[in-house]
Input
Amino acid sequence: MSLRVALTYNLKIRATGDEKLPEDYYAEFDEEETIDAIATALIKIGCRVTKIEADKKAYGKLQRLRPDIVFNIAEGLRGESREAQIPAILELLGIPYTGSGPSTLAMSLNKALTHQILAANRVPSPLYQIFTSPDTKVERRLRFPLVVKPLAEGSSKGVRSSSLVRDAESLRRQVSWVTTTYRQAAIAEEFLPGREFTVGLIGNGEPTVLPIVEIQLDRLPKGSSPLYSYEAKWIWDTPEKPLDMFTCPAQIPDELEKDIRRIAAKAFKILRCRDVCRIDVRLDDDGKPHILEANPLPGMIPDPAAHSCLPEAARAAGYTFDQLVCTILWQALKRYDLQQLVKDPSLVKVL
Output
């Protein structure tokens, strides 16, 4: 009998301009090509896949279907803990699923909570302050330049080239834009001027750290801020006109590689990530790595030209896209002691 897998997702649509939503509102959602590629990979190992859009009807569909496991890539529809919505429903229904639990997803989406948890465990991350309005007084401990972002967004939503601010006036202007556009608090983090990396991890317990990806921000268009911004991720770098700004494995000294891998794995465990995660890292002016944020629902675009960093790191480690998908599923099945339900584990890379 085939393993019954539900694939939960949010489908990316184009904003019409009539909804009064930010232009990047749907940036985190997935294209049909990604959803279909994941479903195809699961079918190849003998799974029977049912796609379920993570909308208001998802609860009823999951309750009726009662799949053996859910492969979850859903970002959620709204609210500061939206990424936790599908996992919370699945916990309620007692249905196994891939990836991190509701508390990890809720914490990781909130950049300030992530920094607090990491700091409490002596994992370096940037100094920051939350701004509920542009009139909030800047704390003395913060030094310009700062990077202003929405408090609880991913996929570089709300991060523009203008997010790097160097004085109080530009800070107020950017905070005003964030709070008005995204209807949430802004977070201002101290800018770390060093190189930027992203680290993919797969597994549980002691996760496997994939080859490190360097995002070479000095190759962005002239005059832009050295940030992996919305423009850099979704406008300037496209499959049709890619930016040559990614190196994997990163060309770095062994000691730095060891430090980055160590703090990424430590953050993975502290935040109680499961099965898969991608962690963003940046160096300070002394060359010390700091965690920028954790992404327990990392993007998984199959097209190499799209520069989706988790698949890029997996390819460097020798994974095909199908193997990446099936290995994530396998890790979840192992957690639930259900791996025997996979009839054909040929696409699973044993960690």
Notes: The radius of gyration is 20 Å. The chain has a mean pLDDT of 93. Residues 140 and 337 are 51 Å apart (CA to CA).
